Amino acid sequence: MPINTATGPVDADRLGKTLMHEHLVIGFPGWDSDTSAPSQSFREMTAVCLDRIGELKAAGFATLLDPCPNDIGRDVALMAEVASRAGFNIVFATGLYHHHLGGTAYWSHKFQYDPDAEKKLADLFIKELTEGVGDTGIKAGVIKLATAMPPFTEYEKTIFRAGAKAALATGAPITTHTDAIMGDEQLAFLTSLGVPAHRIVIGHSCGNPDHDYHMKIVDGGAYIGFDRFGLEIIQPDNVRVASLVKLLKKGRGPQVMISHDSVWCWRGHMLPPAVLQMIEGGGQSMRFTRVITPMLKEAGVTEVEIEAMLVENPRRYFEGERVGGSDNYRKS
Length: 332
What we know:
Elements: E1 2-3, E2 10-11, E3 17-19, E4 23-26, H1 42-58, E5 61-66, H2 76-86, E6 89-95, H3 104-113, H4 117-130, E7 142-146, H5 154-170, E8 174-177, H6 183-192, E9 200-202, H7 211-219, E10 223-226, H8 237-249, E11 256-258, E12 263-266, H9 273-280, H10 287-298, H11 303-310, H12 312-319
Parallel strand pairs: 3-5, 4-12, 5-6, 6-7, 7-8, 8-9, 9-10, 10-11
Antiparallel strand pairs: 1-2
Helix pairs in contact: 1-2, 4-5
């Protein structure tokens, strides 16, 4: 089954070793109003991204998913340039971020005054998946949806409904952002709208050490994102590893997605230098290979299990194969 990438369709069985949540560039709304912030040119950002992808290729990776939504700095031209020059698959997203950090001012105004806004948003997602972003012809491969801390706001639910409509219209899968809670609520809402659970990744679940929370997600039939390795400012990696090992011991490895949520370039001056150094100074996007894999092996996880999480799980997700969970979710 062909998967949209920044350089054109690729068969799912040719994706190879894949990281499922990395970012070439992020720019939260308002970044361009900070005129005192240092800026990187397109050429400079391209160079940074090519360096990072060179490291990934040397470690055997062939693909990454950049799930940056439309409203926080997504740069389709940058992804296409980097992917083409590096000979590397970059799958990217259409979607919107949550009410707290997304493009809320624009879209909430639109939702308030345009009775057809939800349909138009769904149509926008569908166009980006089937025709391309703007007039670029470069097509998104997944839908990105997000919630912040509770409650699940009506603004966010409107975006989720539009995303569900786009998923059902196109067959595209969904990947989500959570603040390590509400993943089970996201899953229940999306499946109530008809989206098959096995077409959904509940992101950033590794930030929550609660095994019961993890089991709700995998028992519901979705994929679960262990996709912030290296972000120890949020959760120590030894806690993430312990949580992952529990899932593997219960046979839930086929539902786990691996990544780092690294950000290679920032628009504006979003984070203090000390925090940026903590996030990227240690080569966060290589942490699973260099640090986490040895930790998993020490805990008894096999090379076969690790390889399956990086190769087979992304392939299965993109192809739409059902995996794990209960029988009470909808089939595609």
